[in-house]
Write a structure and sequence with these properties.
Number of helices: 12
Number of domains: 2
Shape: elongated
Helix content: 25-40%
CATH topology of the largest domain: BirA Bifunctional Protein, domain 2
Strand content: 25-35%
Largest sheet: 5 strands, mixed, barrel
Structural class: alpha+beta
RNA sequence: CGGGCUGUAGUAUAUCGGUUGUACAAGUGCUUUGGGAGCAUUUAGGCUGGGUUCGACUCCCAGCAGCCCGACCA
């Protein structure tokens, strides 16, 4: 991608109406555009990040046996009345059409997925099954805040699993813990993310969350740093400490962001819709369920919060919009020609490259943009880099490093050979 | 939802009850080119609706919007 053709531009000033670091950098870099409080559009750079996160999640969910579907955003009122959540869920968006018919804008999809499965699940032979989707969700947050971290419209992966027994559910639940760890490792925040013991809401006493430690977090967790076992503040009590074999004195308090959660739903949603199966003995049983969520935009915002520096974002390689940011400096014809050759060679080698081919900009401006946009590797072609090698050199520098080095084109290409 | 603050150009800000000033961005010309360049020139602004007033961007009221604190958060 040639940056001269990219319709978005970077911005030097921080937006006045955003305080959070993730929103500031993402808006200044032109990754997202804010529409209203808690609602953002994804622009080319931001969408590339989102797509990469989505693909990681999709791959891992498929590997775990999940079957991808895409459910409707409009949800019938009847279904919500059946589960008692039409009036019971404060943050449900309700919209009505010209005939006065009311529907819900999906904040979650139990009310849809259960009736779907009811069409197909009748026997123990049909279970277990897990389905998931990646889709926009709507929640009427009383106070959207912290940029991408708490939105009113957001993209979420929600998986629902269906089982014949509690044992079977628990086996899957344990597997999902590992799957989630893999997702966060691949997204580059695994080293900061902990599985925490959390409260379970009204129908299940406890659940688990994945919390990423960062100062901007809204949540507070307590971590035993030697064992890596952690729990949320709201469940910090003697009973839980004993259950987890933790000592209060050894726990360290951290601010964190909830990037994922996994829940035991038991029969909470299968019962109202009578989602049941016939077992080996011919007896009818209610299906047991679990649900597993990851907020994609929130994950993106969390990465920015956790991995940026004062100059800008530092994308992990796996979710960076481009693998390399190539810069040409100056207007010298030889430099521009060489930079073009490098760009075309990278493209040919299948490397995702953002090429800052803009002319008329100072070197400092290009460097600042590169720092802000946060590609893992920066490559500079300039009069200076060319002079350093007889064959024409390229200065490369990792986003996390201060000093770069001069390499040949072949050496640069070799970096991306797998 | 309770409390607080704020709405001026694409962005960030300033002043003022009497022709809204600046910086960046954008356009044009020239110069410059390794950490957000220089000169000249051009373009572009008072959230909406009421009220007070000779006159309102400024004061008052309402609405809308945004941010912050709190509560809430499958």
């Amino acid at each position: 991608m040639r940056q001269s053709k990219l319709f978005t531009k970077t911005r030097k000033e921080s937006p006045a109406d955003e305080v959070s670091k993730n929103a500031e950098f993402l808006i200044r870099g032109g990754f997202v555009h804010k529409e209203m409080a808690g609602v953002y559009s994804y622009l080319p750079l931001g969408l590339r990040v989102l797509n990469k996160i989505e693909n990681i999640i999709r791959e891992e969910m498929n590997k775990a046996g999940g079957q991808e579907i895409l459910m409707s955003t409009f949800q019938p009122k009847d279904n919500w009345e059946k589960t008692g959540r039409w009036t019971g869920m404060d943050d449900l968006y309700k919209v009505s059409d010209s005939s006065g018919r009311e529907v819900a804008l999906g904040p979650t999809h139990e009310e849809i997925v259960v009736p779907i499965l009811k069409n197909y699940v009748t026997s123990y032979k049909d279970l277990p099954v897990a389905v998931y989707q990646i889709q926009n969700k709507f929640r009427m947050e009383l106070r959207a805040k912290s940029g991408m971290l708490r939105g009113r419209e957001f993209i979420m992966k929600d998986m629902y699993s269906f089982h014949t027994s509690q044992e079977d559910f628990e086996k899957f639940y344990e597997k999902m813990k590992e799957v989630y760890k893999t997702v966060f490792n691949r997204a580059g925040i695994g080293h900061l993310t902990y599985l925490t013991f959390a409260s379970g809401g009204t129908f299940s006493k406890y659940s688990h969350e994945f919390q990423t430690i960062t100062a901007a977090g809204e949540d507070t967790i307590y971590l035993d740093e030697t064992s890596g076992v952690a729990l949320n503040k709201e469940v910090l009590n003697d009973e839980v400490l004993a259950q987890l074999h933790l000592e209060r004195e050894k726990l360290v308090e951290h601010k964190s962001i909830e990037v994922g959660n996994i829940f035991d739903l038991k029969t909470k949603y299968s019962k109202p819709f009578d989602l049941s199966f016939t077992d080996e003995k011919g007896e009818k049983n209610i299906v047991l369920m679990g649900c597993y969520g990851i907020g994609l935009g929130r994950l993106m915002g969390t990465v920015v919060e956790a991995l940026s520096d004062d100059k800008g974002i530092i994308w992990p390689e796996a979710i960076a919009p481009f693998q390399i940011h190539l810069l040409s400096l100056g207007e010298d014809v030889a430099v521009l020609k060489e930079a073009d050759t490098v760009y075309e060679s990278l493209l040919k080698a299948g490397v995702e490259v953002l090429f800052d081919d803009r002319t008329g900009l100072s070197a400092g401006e290009k460097f600042s943009d590169a720092d802000l946009l946060g590609m893992p590797l920066r490559a500079v072609v300039s009069a200076r880099s060319i002079k350093d090698l007889p064959s024409g050199g390229i200065e490369i520098k990792k986003r996390t490093e201060e000093k770069g080095k001069i390499v040949t084109l072949d050496e640069l290409l070799k970096i991306f050979k797998k």
